[in-house]
Amino acid sequence: MSDQVKTNHKTTAKERPFARAIQTLRNVGLRPTRQRMALAKILFDGANRHVTADSLHEEIDKANITISRATIYNTLHQFTDVGLLREVVVDSGRTYFDTNVTDHHHYFLEEEGCLQDIPDGALTIGLLPEVPPGKKFSRVEVIIHVAKDS
Length: 150
Description:
Layout: H1 2-8, H2 19-27, H3 34-44, E1 50-51, H4 53-62, H5 69-81, E2 86-91, E3 94-98, E4 106-109, E5 114-117, E6 143-146
Parallel strand pairs: 4-6
Antiparallel strand pairs: 1-3, 2-3, 4-5
Helix pairs in contact: 2-3, 4-5
């Protein structure tokens, strides 16, 4: 009887489509609101990716989900603050959010306007300047801008 009860009460990810998003948010101390769950599901239920607030807003619209740009922007920054995303500033007018939060570097493909991860081990950083007194390096981040070869 107990085996039958266990079998009947099992839940799977297919039965609970937001289970992973809810757990991800709770693990970092964020309340799983409807907007956060929708954004977490889109951002984290798949391969690592780079998004902007605008590209995410377009994706949300195509999925017939109503979330304001301001809420998307605020949520991206909340996710960054708790370590779920990494903010990558390409220039003063272009910020991307990366779901891969490990230390790694990027190509910025200028023609396409997108980021691409540089494979591990493809970039070696040699001599670094001295750190100001009382400071230490926290991270070295390289973004290589790539233009069309004409």
